[in-house]
Amino acid sequence: MAGDGELLVWRRRTRARELLVWAGWLLGVSLFIFCWQTIAANTTWYFVADAPRVAADIGDRMVPPKWSYAAKLWGPLWDTINIATLGTILSVLLATPIAFLAATNTTPSTRFVRPLALLIIVSSRSINSLIWGLLLVTIIGPGVVAGIFAITFRSIGFVAKLLYEAIEEIDQRQVEAIAATGANGGQVITFAIWPQILPAFAGTSVFRWDINIRESTVLGLVGAGGIGLELQASINIVAWQQVSVILLAILSTVIVSEWVSAKVRHAVI
Amino acid sequence: MTDTPFDARTWRPPGLIRSSLWRWLLAVTVAIYLASALGSLEINWLRIGQGLGRGVTFLAAFATPDFVTHWRDISEGLAESLTMTGAATVIGIALSLPIGLGAARNIAPMPVYLFCRGVVALSRSFQEVILAIFFVAMFGFGPFAGLVTLSVATIGFFGKLLAEEIEAMDPVQAEAVQATGAGWLQWIDYAVTPQVMPRIIGLSLYRLDINFRESAVVGIVGGGGIGATLNTAFDRYEFETAAAILLIIIGIVMLSEYLSGLIRARVQ
Amino acid sequence: MLRLHRLSKQYQAGDDALKGVDLEVPDGQVVALIGPSGAGKSTLIRCINRLVEPSSGQVFLDDEEVTALGSRRLRRTRRRMGMIFQEYALIERLTVMENVLSGQLGYVGFLRSYFRRFPTETVQQAFQLLERVGLTEHYDKRADELSGGQRQRVGIARAILQQPDILLVDEPTASLDPRTSRQIMRLISELCSERQLAAIVNIHDVTLAQMFVARIVGLREGEVVFDGKPDDLTNEVLTEIYGEEDWQTANDRTEEKERAAKESLEEQMKGLSG
Question: Is C168 inside any structural domain?
C-alpha cells in the first residue's frame, strides 16, 4: 500500500462524517442561541444589572446571624430528620418488591408485570419531591406526614431502579447452584440473590437517605413540614438574620449526613 | 478435630454485626428512635380522612387529564422550562469543564485544585430550591433566575463527577502521551479527553434530564417554567390540569431517558 | 550518547528506588536492563525522560543535561527519546493512526494536533511505519480492537515516529505470549539496527534478553551489580542479581486490585447522585 510513490491521505473522519459533525455542532449552537434568546426576552435586564447591589444588600442584612433564634430550630430540625429517615425506610420497604418485579431475571412476567413496575419507577423518579409535597399537602393537608410521603414517593423509583439493576447484574451461576439443590423460589431469593445484592441494597438506602436529608430541608416551602417552614416564614417577614441561622443549620445537617452516609457506605461495600 | 460429641455443637447463622453487644445496642437505639419519631408525628386523622376522598379524586383526574382549558399556560410554562433546561445545561457544562479539570488532583496544581474544589463544594452545599429563592430575590421573578440556579447546580454536579472521572483515568496512557514531548493542551486532548469522553457525554445527558425535572421545581419559588403553572393548578384544586402537567413531565422524562440510553450505547 | 551520573531516586514513602546509578549507553547500542521486581528498572527508565523526577544525579543526552531542563526544553528533548510501555499504553479510544501520529505531538502545534491536521510527510511516514510493523490494514481501527501483539506494534510505531535517538523500552513483552514476545523483541532490535537507535530495554525474561541484545546490565535494589556481554551472565551472576524470591511485590498487587474494585463500586454510587 505504502511506498509505491502515491501520496497516502489520512483523515480522522470520512467526509460525510465530518459534515455530520459540523451539522451537529451547528444544530446544537443554534438551539442554544434560541433558548438563550427566549429567556432573554422574558428577563427584566434592569433587575439583572441591579443584582450585585441586591446581593450585597441581602448579604449585609444576613450578618450577624441572630444566634438566639437557633434554639427555636431544634424542633423543626428533628422533624426534618424524621421526614428523611421515615420516608427512606418506607420507600425502601415499598421499593424492594417493585425491584424484584422489574428485574428481568426475577419478574414473574416480562410482558405485563415488568412494564407496570417500570412505569411506577419512572413516574416516581420524574416528579421531584417538592412537587410530590405540593400534591400531598393539597390532598392530606400540611404537616410532617405529607413530607414523609413526599419523600417516600420520590424515593421509591430511585431505590427500585438501582436495586433492580443490581439484581440484573448478579452472578446467575450462584442462582443455578441453589436452584439445583431443589430450593423453591423464596429460598432462591434468600440464599442466592439476596446475599449478592445486599451491599447494593444497603449502599443505595443510605445514599438515598443522604439525598433525602437535603430534600427534606426544603419541603417546608410547600407546607410539608420541617425546617423549610421556618425558612419560608423568615423569608416572608424578611428576617434575613434568621435566614442565615437556618441556612447554617441546614448546611451543618447536610455535612453531618453526608459524612455518616460516606462512612456507612464505606463499611458495607 | 476435637472430641466434642456431635449433638453438643450448635451452629447459628452469622449475623450482620459480629459482636452481640453492638447488635443489641443498635437494635435498641433504632427502636427508641422509631418510637420517638413516630410519637412526635401529629397526625390529624380527620384531615387525612377528608384527604383520602380528595386523593381518589386526584387519581381519577389522571384518567381524565385536562390539557385543554389551560393549554396556553401549560405550553408557555413548558416552553420556558425546556429553554431554561437547554441553556442552563450548556452554560453549566461549559463552565464546569475547566472547573472539573482544575478539581482533579492528578492534573491540577494544589492552589488551583483547592480553588476548584471550593467552587464545587459551594455550589453543591445547598438544595436547588434554596439557591432559586436567592436568585429570584436577586434577579427578580422569571426564567433568568431559574437559568442561573440550574447552571450553578450543574457546575457542582458535573465538576465533581468529571474530576472524579479524571482522577480515575489510566495514568499509563497519560504517561505515554507525555513521553512523546506533547504540550499540556495536547496532553489533555490526546490522553485525557479520549478517556473521559464517554462519561462526559453520559453525564451531560443525565444532567439534562435532571435539569428538566428541577426546572419544574424552581417555578414554585418564582424561577419561571412549568412549576409556576403546576403550583397555580394545585392552588385552585384543578386536579385535571395538574394531572395533565404531571403526565407531560413524566412523558418527557421517559422520552429523554430512552434517547439518552440510545446515545450512550453508541458512544461506548 | 546517553550518560547517567549518580542518578538516585527516593520515593516519598522513603524507599530508595535508585542509589547512585552510573551508566553510559553509546549511540546505536541496545542494552537490556534485568533485575527482580522492585529493583528500580522502571524508575530508572522513567527518570531518564523525567516522567519520574530523579532526587539527585544527572542525565545527559549527548551534551544536554536533561535533568537541568525547564519544562519547554524538556518536551523538546523528550521527542528524542521514544518510549515503549509494558501494557502498551495506547490511547484505547483513539484509532491506530491517531495513536501512531501522537508520536509527533512534540513537533506540531496544539491547533494542528487538535484538528488532526498533521503534515503530509508525517502521515506518509506513519503509513510506512504501519506497513513496517505489519498493521497497514488496521490503521482505521480503534486501538482497543487489536490483540496484545498488535497493540505493542502500534506502541512501537508511535515511539519510532518521534524520530528518536534512543528508545526507552519498559517490559515490552510482559503481557504477551512467548511467541509474540520473541516477534516483538526481534522487531525492536531490527528497528534499532535499521535506524541506528540506542535502546534501554527493561526485561525480566533473561533468555529473551540474551537472544537479542549486545549488552546486559543487572540491577538489584537500585544498584548496578552487573554490566557485560550476554555470555558472561553465569548462574552465579544471576543469583547475585535475583537472589531470593520477592514475594512482597506479589502481595501488594492483590491488595491493590481489591482496593480498586472497591473504589469502582463507590464510583458507581456517586455517579447516581442528584
Answer: no
Asked if omega into B194 is within 30° of 0 (cis), the reply is no
**Does the beta-carbon distance from B177 to C102 stay under 8 Å?**
yes
Give alpha helix (H) positions in chain B: 20-39, 45-63, 71-102, 110-124, 128-139, 143-167, 171-179, 184-187, 193-218, 226-235, 239-267
Query: Of the candidates B218, B205, B223, B214, which has an alpha carbon nearest to the alpha carbon of residue B93?
Result: B205
Task: Supply the CATH number for residue C16's domain.
Answer: 3.40.50.300
Q: Do C123 and A8 touch (CB under 8 A)?
A: yes
Contact state of C93 with B198 under an 8 Å Cβ cutoff:
yes
- Residue C177 C-beta-side C-alpha neighbours within 13 Å: 6
Across the interface, which of C51, C76, C271 has its CB nearest the CB of B178? C51
On whether any CB of chain B is under 8 Å from the CB of C42, the answer is no
CA dist A269 and A206 (Å) reads 12
Q: Does B133 touch chain A (CB under 8 A)?
A: yes
**With b meaning 16 or more CB within 10 Å and e meaning fewer, what string describes A109-137?**
eeeeebeebbebbbbbbbbbbbbbbbbbb
Partner A contacted by C117 (CB < 8 A): no
Residues A121-165: tens digit of each pLDDT: 999 998 889 999 988 888 888 889 999 999 999 999 999 999 999
Is C198 inside any structural domain?
Answer: no
Determine the residue type at B4: T
Q: Which chain C residues are Cβ-neighbours of B197 within 8 angstroms?
A: 93
Site of grid cell 413540614 = A225
Contact residues on chain B for C100, CB-CB shorter than 8 A? none
Q: Which residues of chain B have pLDDT under 70?
A: 1-18
- What average pLDDT is seen over chain B? 87
Q: Is C53 on the interface with B (CB under 8 A)?
A: no
Domain that holds residue C256: 1-79+207-274
Residue C236 banded pLDDT, cuts 50, 70, 90 = confident
Q: What subunits make at least 3 CB pairs under 8 angstroms with C?
A: A, B
What is the three-state SS of B87-121?
A: HHHHHHHHHHHHHHHHCCCCCCCHHHHHHHHHHHH
Q: In what order do the strands lie in the sheet with C81-84?
A: C81-84, C166-170, C198-202, C30-34, C215-220, C223-228
CA of A2: which chain C residue's CA is closest?
C128
Cell of A119: 412505569
Q: B218 — alpha (psi -120 to 50), left (phi > 0) or beta?
A: alpha
**Residues of chain C contacting residue B186, judged by C-beta atoms under 8 Å apart:** 105, 110, 113-114
For residue C28, the tally of other CB atoms under 10 A from its CB is 16
Question: What residues contact C152, with CB distance under 8 A and at least 6 apart?
Answer: C84, C88, C172, C173, C176, C180, C184
Report how far residue A252's alpha carbon sits from residue A70's, in angstroms, rounded to the nearest whole number.
13
**In total, how many domains does chain C have?**
1
Given a contact as 3+ CB pairs under 8 Å, which chains touch A? B, C
The nearest alpha carbon in chain C to B185 belongs to: C110
CB contact under 8 A, B140 and A250: no
Residue matched to cell numbers 418564582: B222
Given a cut of 50, whether residue C137 has pLDDT beyond it is yes
Pick from C200, C79, C202, C84: nearest CA to C151? C84
CATH (one of 1.10.3720.10, 1.10.287.1490, 3.10.450.120, 1.20.120.50) for B69-267: 1.10.3720.10
Interface of C with A in 244-263 (CB under 8 A): 262
The answer to whether C131 contacts A7, with C-beta atoms less than 8 Å apart, is no
DSSP letter assigned to residue B222 = T
Give C76-124 pLDDT, tens digit per residue: 899 999 999 888 888 888 889 999 999 888 888 888 888 888 898 999 9
Please compute, for residue C17, the number of CA atoms within 13 A of its CA located in the half-sphere on the CB side: 20
